[in-house]
Amino acid sequence: MTDTTDQSDSTRTTRWKRRVATPLRDFLSTEAGSAGVLVAAIVAALIWANTADSSYESFWHTAVSVEFGSRGIELDLREWVNSGLMTLFFLVVGLEARREFDLGDLRDRRRFVLPALAGVAGMALPIGIFLAFNHGHAGGAGWGTAMSTDTALALGLLALVGRHVPVQARLFLVTVSVVDDVVALIVIAVAYSDDIRMMPLIVAVAAFLLTLVMVRAGVRSGFVYLPVCLVVWGATLESGIDPVVSGLAIGLAAAAYTPGRNDLEQASDLFRSFREQPTPELARFARMGLLRSLSPNDRLTRTWSGVSSYLIVPLFGLANAGIVIDAGFLGDALASRVTLGVFFAYVVGKPLAITGVSALVTWLSRGRVRPAAGWASVLGTGTIAGMGFTVSFLIANLAFEEPELSDAKLGLLLAIPAASLITWTVFWVTGRLPRPRKAVALLGDVEELIDLIPEVDPERDHVRGPAGATVTLVEYGDFQCPYCGRAEPIVRELLTDDDLRYVWRHLPLTDVHPQAQLAAQAAEAAGLQGRFWEMHDLMFTRQDHLRIADLLRYAGELGLDQDKFHDDMMQTICKDRITADLESADLSGVSGTPTFFINGRRHYGSYDVQTLKEAIRVARVRAKIAAKRR
Length: 630
What we know:
- The chain is built from 25 helices and 8 strands.
- The protein is mainly alpha-helical and 630 residues long.
- The strands form 2 sheets. A 6-stranded mixed β-sheet has the order 1-4-6-5-7-8. A two-stranded antiparallel sheet has the order 2-3.
- Strand 7 (595-598) and strand 8 (601-602) form a beta hairpin.
- Helix 4 (110-134) packs antiparallel against helix 14 (337-364).
């Protein structure tokens, strides 16, 4: 079924773009974009603390209470930020970790082993370095300050100093940081929580278990979960354990999955009912149907990711980064065991531990367990991990009093530019390597997980382009879908690449495109007479005219036997072929059109020519690396 016809007459350019991104990739871009806001908040805090006498500290120590009858909670503004709003930040961290376990590379649990070990070692060695400076001294109790990477800041600065870093390196950093955050929050709960009260803790655990039961029972309404989650937070606070732990636990409990076709079809039916009778009641049902089609993880991520990154984390920076800096303070702090211990723990300990453990595990497993990115990316991940902020500041506030608290904050702030400069150097040197070596250094040679099920079969699939191409682009499409129509000239532009083959698989969305199924059958009937691609191309030029009479006329224009064409359209062989593609879409997690796969990996992001060409270029490089490995 291969067609290698010339595509030189295809449309050369398009202005059309459509963004379809996973929440994880939205998370990565959001964290990168928010880094500038966070840095601005840190600078503002330093300016405020050094130019307005004591107003900075007096403002953040303002008491605010919330009363519930005879009971209430009273915290100062800094505590409301650190223990209240930061709970939502750790909720987002938990959501992203759960998504990676359910849908990302970590669904292969073996891929969690190495970053988990790197994350633990990346905490243990910095603690050891800190204690080497402070053991036996007053600052030794603050060892927890030196262990936790700031995910948001590290991702943001990695995007700035390592502009060509592959996504896998950033995912490796996210995984290491999640392990880091989980262990750090356990440390806060065990080592830095005084006077733990058991009854409130039991209430918090019981309320959390209730959320798990509700998830298992299929309860989806956020209004039902909200009071239970507030009980978890309040009871954890009352127990004496920092309540940010509750945010991470709730995030990890929120399952992630792609919308199912049945759920989407039900949502379409509800919307169609509203379109026919636009009443408030039907509008509410339609909205609920749309929301139900999304996973709890997806809904919570979309709601809180931007708020966390652009508001909560910068507000945390504003509330905690302000320290009074003068010549006397700098002279004492730069010689302080606490400052030096924190600085070298991050700038030296983090990269040594993360890179060293990754290399050790790879060697001990004889390459069976190795990073999903190249070694330059792993080293750059380790160096950029050498900065702490959110969790480190939380622990510093719990562990230190002045002047050690300001010394610790200075060490953390100094580590940020130092880690950024070292990371920039790593990627600058990598960029000077010869192109093949640079590709391996950044991308690595680990086999990627395949999302496409089943793999392409030239005997069964409709294939266009050279059989020996190193890159295969698969599209699940619908002949009546306007977005597929806009993607068609893009595909034709891509097919000018003589090292690319293109595969079409049917996904007629009959709930919104009533002629899509018949059009798919028409393409298959034309294929039985050897003219699949001609019918495919013709129907995309006439998407508004796909009724049976139109299809028969198109068969005549293509010189097909119209009687045979009509009979074949209704035969089981055509319908079974489309059904097989629908089953493949379900197995591959596809529910909308157009959806693209490049060498078996699902493509997320824009569908414009430049974005797809770059994705194809990276896939070709990976294919060549894999071929050399074999």
